[in-house]
Amino acid sequence: MPTPTPAHQAAQDGAPAAAAAGPSLGLSWSLVALLREWSTRVDAATEELPQGMRGYQVLRVVVHDSPPTQAALAARLGIDRTVMTYLIDSYVECGLVERQQDPADRRARRIVATAHGRKVLAGVDVRVAAAEEDLLSGLPPEDRVLFRELLERAARGVTQDDDPCGVVARATTPPDGR
Amino acid sequence: MPTPTPAHQAAQDGAPAAAAAGPSLGLSWSLVALLREWSTRVDAATEELPQGMRGYQVLRVVVHDSPPTQAALAARLGIDRTVMTYLIDSYVECGLVERQQDPADRRARRIVATAHGRKVLAGVDVRVAAAEEDLLSGLPPEDRVLFRELLERAARGVTQDDDPCGVVARATTPPDGR
DNA sequence: TGATATCGTCTGTAGCACAGATGATTTCGT
DNA sequence: ACGAAATCATCTGTGCTACAGACGATATCA
Would an 8 Å CB–CB cutoff place A122 in contact with chain B? Predict the structure, then answer.
C-alpha cells in the first residue's frame, strides 16, 4: 500500500538536508526502529515465557541445536555465562527445560527441553511468526521473503557462522578500552 | 564474501533458503545478531562521543531535524524524557550541543548543535558509514542497496510513516496486552 | 601426584530505564 | 483578570540487568 517511491520526503519545516545526504534516515535509524518494534511485538508474543525474547531464543537453540554446555549456549547467543545461569534457572523452575549431568564431563550440565517445553515453544513459534509477519506489513509479500533472506545472509556474514569461536572472541573482546 | 549468491531469484518462489542452510535461525536470530554486530561496530566508531550510538542518534537528529523540544526529540527516537535529560547533559558538557531558551516558550529548551558538534558529527558519520558498509559485507554491493531500501521501508511501515505523533503514541502506549 | 584449565554458580557493584514528584511556564475556562 | 489544568524539563528513588571476580567441583596435562 505505501507507494514504492523513494520514501524520503521533506519533513515539516525545511529539513531537506536529510534527503540531500542520500538515505533519508539511514541504516542506523531503520535498524533501531525496526528492532524496537520487533522487540515489543515479540515480547508480547512470548509473555508466557520467562525472560521474554531472550528466553525464547535460548529455548529455541536448546530445542534445535542442543549445545553441549551452557557456555556454548551462551556464546551462541552472545550472552554472558553468569546471565545464562539464572536465565536457565527460571526455565527450569517453569518446567520447560532440565539440567542433566553430562556423564562424559561431570562439570557440564546438558540443557534439554522437556516435552512441555517443546510444546510451549511450538505454540510460541506460531505467534512469533505472526508477529514477525505483522512487523513486515509495510512490505509487499514477495519483498518480505526477499528481505528475510537478505537479512539472514547479512547476519550470517558477520557472525562467521561456521566459526563459533569468532562469535565468542568478538563478544568478549573489550571495546578497546580508553 | 565468498560467492555473491543470487538473491532475487531464489527468494521469489517459496522459501527454499531455510532448508538450504541450517534451518530455523529465523528473522529473530538474524535481527538480533545483526543488531549486536552493528552495535559493537558503531560503538567503536562513536567512542569519541558520549553515550555511544545512542548519543550519535541524538546528535544526528539534532543537526538534521532540530526538533523544537527535548520531549519531541526523545519521542522521535523512542527514548524516555528523563533519559534524554542526562543524555544531553553529557553532550553539553563536551561542548557538542547547547541548550537555548526558546523565546516563544520559556519552558522549552531548544537543543542546537555547536559548530564543533557539527564538525565532530561529520567525522563520525564517515566512520559509521564505513562500519555499516562493513556490516553488510556478506552481501554483494547491489544487494546492499536493496537491503537498505527494504529495511527502511519496513521500518517506516511500523512507525506509522509520516505521522510523527504515531511514534509518540506507540512509545507511550502500554503493551496493550496480547 | 600436583599444577592448571574449564564448567557452572554465587556475590558485589555499577549502569540504566522508568515512575513519580517538583518548579517553572503556558494555555484554557469562566 | 484570575485560577485550574496542562506542558516542559529536571531531580529523586527504585528495580532490573549485566558484568567482573571469586569460589567449589571436575577434568586434563606434566
Answer: no
CA B55 vs CA B61, B79, B88: distances in Å: 10, 11, 8
> Which residues, at least 6 apart from A119, have a Cβ–Cβ distance to it below 8 Å?
none
Higher pLDDT, B6 or A27: A27
Question: What pTM was computed for the model?
Answer: 0.74
Q: Which residue is nearest to nucleotide D17 (CA to C1')?
A: A83
Query: What tens digit of pLDDT does each residue of B38-52 get?
Result: 888 888 888 888 888
When pLDDT is averaged across residues B55-62 and rounded to a whole number, the result is 92
Helix (H) or strand (E) holding B67: none
Minimum CA–CA partner of A141 in chain B: B12
**Nucleotide whose C1' lies closest to the alpha carbon of residue A86:** C9
Q: At residue B23, what are phi and psi to the nearest 5 degrees?
A: -70, -115
Domains belonging to chain B, first-starting first, are: 30-135 (1.10.10.10)
Q: Which of residues 82-111 of A touch B (CB under 8 A)?
A: none
